[in-house]
Design goal:
This protein is 21% helix and 26% strand. The strands form three sheets. The protein has a three-stranded antiparallel β-sheet, with helices on one face. It has a single domain, classed as Nuclear Transport Factor 2, Chain: A, CATH 3.10.450. It starts with 7 loop residues before the first strand and ends in a 20-residue tail after the last strand. The protein has helices at residues 29-41, 67-84, and strands spanning 8-10, 16-17, 22-23, 25-27, 88-96, 104-113, 119-127. It is of the alpha+beta class. It is globular, with a radius of gyration of 16 Å.
């Protein structure tokens, strides 16, 4: 049960390479990270054939940011990963509001790959304010710890 368990899939958004006449692929840990980004950014009901896929964090954008709201965001992500990402086990979801006055909430998900027992960390910045100069691309931070 090595890293082949983690799988291989299309990059998202799909990009095509004319020299190879094919689509760019992701595998192993990169495929898991891409899957997490897709899961967190998908609203439940958005996928016709998988109506329960997603975690609805976008529906919480204009809610007041208090302890209850942070707990709800963490629970939405943990539950979505539990049901839709069998390759990992979430160890911690931390909602940080240090930049809330600038309209940014950072959600840090620490998880363990079940097949390799390696720990990783992925960060999702959520932007509360609209604007044309806001970078909506999530930054990803990976930290591997020895097992």
């Amino acid at each position: 049960m090595g890293e082949s368990f983690l799988g291989r899939g299309w990059s998202f958004p799909p990009t095509f390479d004319r020299s190879r006449a094919g689509v760019d692929m992701l595998q192993d840990e990169d495929d898991v990270i891409s899957s997490l980004h897709i899961l967190v950014r998908t609203m439940r009901g958005e996928r016709v054939m998988l109506p329960t896929y997603g975690c609805n964090v976008q529906s919480q954008v204009f809610e007041p940011l208090d302890t209850r709201q942070k707990t709800l965001l963490a629970d939405l992500i943990e539950t979505a990963v539990l049901y839709h990402e069998p390759r990992i086990e979430v160890e911690k979801v931390d909602v940080q509001d240090d930049d809330a006055l600038e309209g940014v909430i950072t959600v840090q998900v620490t998880y363990r790959l079940k097949s390799t027992n390696s720990r990783f960390n992925v960060v999702f910045p959520f932007y509360l304010n609209e604007g044309t100069d806001v970078n909506l691309t999530a930054s990803v931070t990976l930290l591997e710890e020895s097992t």
